[in-house]
Amino acid sequence: MSAKTETHGDRGMTTANSANAKPDIDVDAHASVGGPRYAGLLIALHWLIALGIVGLLALGLYMVGLPKGLPVKATLINLHKSLGLTVFLLVLLRIAARLVLHRPPLPPMPPWQRAAARTTQGLLYVGMVAMPLAGYLGSSFNTYGTRFWGILLPKWGWDDAHLRALFFGLHHAIAYALIVLIVLHVAGAFKHQWIDRDNLLARMLP
């Protein structure tokens, strides 16, 4: 074979290889556009519940500092109860939705981080269910009961100061535990987004 023929052959192989070569793209940028995401209903419920819980925690901490007998305190307490039960119903809806809707897998991470993420998320769900139930039971052991947006709900107890203090104390303890868990949850999401750069946060953004 002549040198000229070999030159044309090399050029043909180079052209073919160039055509089959993958384009040089930014993998992270591509993942941010078309990466796995939660279902739309789960995203909406996540942010509605998050805003509701933050508002309830702020309102609850504010109410504790108000003096007894202040008229506005009773109004805020009833608002707190109605909002709390509304968020509780949204949490139950989200639990049901998680069982049937698509959830994207976690990105690659060390086993301890995966275990910490699942543990924190599990404890968040336990707190979101247990806290309103404790508050509702605490209200059941007094003479006022619970009104859900003006509708008086059934009382599951009687006027008992000891049991009322027990359930309200549990309600307050879970609230502080939820604050710690929320801080850990947010810190973990920011770590993955800004340090690990695995675009984890984008899965839950609207």
Automatic annotation (TrEMBL):
It is a multi-pass membrane protein. GO terms for cellular component: plasma membrane. It is found in: Cell membrane. It comes from the Bacteria. Keywords: Cell membrane, Electron transport, Heme, Iron, Membrane, Metal-binding, Transmembrane, Transmembrane helix, Transport. GO terms for biological process: respiratory electron transport chain. Residues 37-206 form the Cytochrome b561 bacterial/Ni-hydrogenase domain. One of its GO terms (molecular function) is heme binding. InterPro entries: Cyt_b561_bac/Ni-Hgenase, Cytochrome_b561_oxidase, Di-haem_cyt_TM. The keyword Transmembrane helix applies. The chain crosses the membrane at residues 38-63, 83-101, 122-145, 165-187. It holds the Pfam family Ni_hydr_CYTB. Its cofactor is heme b. Belongs to the cytochrome b561 family. This is Cytochrome b. It comes from Paraburkholderia sprentiae WSM5005.
